[in-house]
Amino acid sequence: METQKAALSTGVHIEYSLSGVENEETLLFVHGLGPNLHQFEPQQQFFARNFRVLSVSLRGHGGSSRPINPTEADYTVQKLARDVQALLSYLNIEKVHYVGNSLGGLVGYELLEADPDRVSSLTTFGTTAELHSSRFVVWSLLTAIRLLGRRGMAWLISRTASEDKAAAARLGKMYRVVSKDALKLITKNIDDYDYTDIIGKHDIPMMLVKGGLDREINANLDSTLEVLSEKSGCRIVELSEVGHFANMEKPEAFNQVVLDFVVACGTRRN
After folding, report:
1. Are 253 and 239 in contact (CB under 8 A)?
2. By three-state DSSP, how is residue 18 classified?
3. How far does CA 151 lie from the centroid of its chain?
4. What does pTM read for this prediction?
């Protein structure tokens, strides 16, 4: 995967990969907390045959830069979404089919709210639109980050992130290059949120891909599923044998689900 960097008006340099067919619709893939654009290599290869494909590394992740002496305000989901919005402007991309994993899904909600005309459709996986974490859970995560550091977290992720050992090992490699500040400050910013109003009020095609083995997210999906089930043009698809990282664990099944959805949006015909 060839990557480039863009110096954005938001003050950071964002790593991205853009490939595929010129003048075709663009699919944008955004990773979760810890990984980077390399999470979507299988999708870049598959969709570039017929689409334009853009993958990004959020600030503090992969080859993207990070703010100097950052605070929580530098790593809000809104700031991450503004980076993505600025990158789309930099690349002169007017509309995207957005696909986000976990934190990347939250960034998609923020982009939809800030710039709805940019988003042709929104797909999330490993994401819940509403979460209210206990203080103990947040404290435990922050303590693990503080004690283990980036390398220790990479080791832990490589052994626990997925039942697919190959996928877990790749995730561990990506965690080795994430900023410790990004892990810590983003964790603080996503412990308590509710995007159900946003997904409820915007009238675009949406899809939620539910991993059957993604137990933590599934335990917090009720309100998200309720809102989506009441909207026309929305899909809820379950892949029973995948966890939090469906695109890496079962790439062929994931790719087909996304392809079918994008085609069904009506903006692309076979």
Report:
1. yes
2. strand
3. 22
4. 0.95
SS3 call for 268: coil
Show the tokens assigned to 255: 């790719």
Residue 88, C-beta contacts closer than 8 angstroms, at least 6 positions apart:
28, 94, 96, 118
CB-CB contact of 126 with 245 (8 Å)? yes
- 3 state SS of 130: strand
Domain ranges of the chain: 4-131+193-267
Q: What is the DSSP string of 38-85?
A: GGGHHHHHHHTTTSEEEEEE-TTSTT----SS--GGGG-HHHHHHHHH
Q: Are 67 and 59 in contact (CB under 8 A)?
A: yes
User: What is the three-class DSSP state of 158?
Assistant: helix
| Residue 165: Cβ within 10 Å count | 10
Where helices occur in 176-238 by DSSP H, the ranges are: 180-189, 196-201, 215-218, 222-229
CA distances from 95 to 5, 34, 116, 124, 211 (A): 20, 26, 9, 17, 27
DSSP secondary structure letter of residue 3: -
Among 55, 29, 41, 49, smallest CA distance to 167 is for: 41
Q: d(Cα 229, Cα 231) in Å, to the nearest integer?
A: 6
**pLDDT digits 0-9 by tens, 76-134:** 999 999 999 999 999 999 999 999 999 999 999 999 999 999 999 999 999 999 999 88
Domain made up of 4-131+193-267: CATH architecture: 3-Layer(aba) Sandwich (3.40)
Query: Helices (H), strands (E): how many in the chain?
Result: 11, 10
Q: Residue with structure tokens 């600030």?
A: 59
